[in-house]
C-alpha cells in the first residue's frame, strides 16, 4: 500500500495542466526511478534494455522538442495520447542474435519482411471479403439479361483489400 501511495504522490503533478515538456519530464523521472533492474541472466535482457532505452530516448526527445518550440499546456489525457502515439511510431529492429524465432507482425509490417514460413493467426470471418451469393433460380447468363448481374470487379476489389503476404 505504501508503494502505491508513493507512486500516486510522484505522479500527482501529471493531473494538473502544465507545459508539455514539464509533463514529459515528470513522467520520465518516474519511469527512470521506478524501472525494475534487469538481471543479466535474463534471456530477454538485451531486448528489454534496448526497448527501455528507446522509450527513454523518445521521452527525452519529445520533451526537448516541446521545450524548444511551442510548449503547449497538456493535461494527463494529452500526455497519454502523445506518449502512446510516440511509442507506436518506434521501430525496434531485432538484434542479429534475436532475428530467429517467431515474429508477430501486422498486415502493414509483414510486407517488408523476408520469411521462410508464414502463419496467419487471429483472422476471423469478418476479415475476409464476402463470398458472392449466387442466385439459385437463374443461371449466370440469365441473371445478366434480367439486370441482376453483379457489378464487375466488386469482389476483386474486396479481395485486394486483404493484404497479400505470400
Characterization of this structure:
There is one protein chain. The protein is mostly helical and 166 residues long. It has six helices and two strands, in the order H-E-H-H-E-H-H-H. Strands 1-2 form a two-stranded antiparallel sheet. It is elongated, with a radius of gyration of 26 Å. The N and C termini lie far apart (52 Å). The mean pLDDT is 80.
What is the helix content? 40-55%
Weakly predicted, low-confidence segments: none
Q: What's the arrangement of strands in the largest beta sheet? A: 1-2
Report the sheet with the most strands, covering strand number, pairing sense and barrel closure: 2 strands, antiparallel
- Any idea what the radius of gyration is? 26 Å
Count of helices? 6
Oligomeric form of this entry?
single chain
Number of distinct beta strands: 2
Distance between the termini: 52 Å
- Give the class from helix and strand content and strand pairing: mainly alpha
The outline comes out as elongated
Element string (H = helix, E = strand): HEHHEHHH
How is the secondary structure organized here?
Layout: H1 2-11, E1 18-19, H2 20-34, H3 45-68, E2 73-74, H4 76-89, H5 140-145, H6 154-161
Antiparallel strand pairs: 1-2
Helix pairs in contact: 2-3
Amino acid at each position: 500500500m505504501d508503494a502505491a501511495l508513493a507512486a500516486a504522490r510522484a505522479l500527482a503533478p501529471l493531473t494538473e495542466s502544465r507545459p508539455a515538456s514539464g509533463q514529459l519530464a515528470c513522467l520520465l523521472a518516474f519511469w527512470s526511478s521506478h524501472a525494475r533492474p534487469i538481471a543479466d541472466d535474463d534471456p530477454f535482457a538485451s531486448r528489454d534494455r534496448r526497448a527501455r532505452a528507446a522509450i527513454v530516448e523518445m521521452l527525452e526527445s519529445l520533451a526537448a522538442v516541446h521545450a524548444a518550440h511551442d510548449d503547449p499546456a497538456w493535461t494527463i489525457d494529452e500526455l497519454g495520447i502523445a506518449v502512446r502515439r510516440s511509442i507506436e511510431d518506434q521501430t525496434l529492429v531485432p538484434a542479429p542474435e534475436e532475428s530467429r524465432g517467431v515474429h508477430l507482425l501486422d498486415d502493414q509490417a509483414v510486407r517488408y519482411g523476408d520469411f521462410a514460413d508464414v502463419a496467419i493467426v487471429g483472422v476471423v470471418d469478418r476479415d475476409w471479403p464476402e463470398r458472392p451469393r449466387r442466385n439459385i433460380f437463374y443461371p449466370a447468363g440469365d441473371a445478366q439479361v434480367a439486370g441482376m448481374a453483379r457489378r464487375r470487379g466488386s469482389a476483386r476489389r474486396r479481395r485486394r483489400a486483404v493484404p497479400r503476404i505470400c
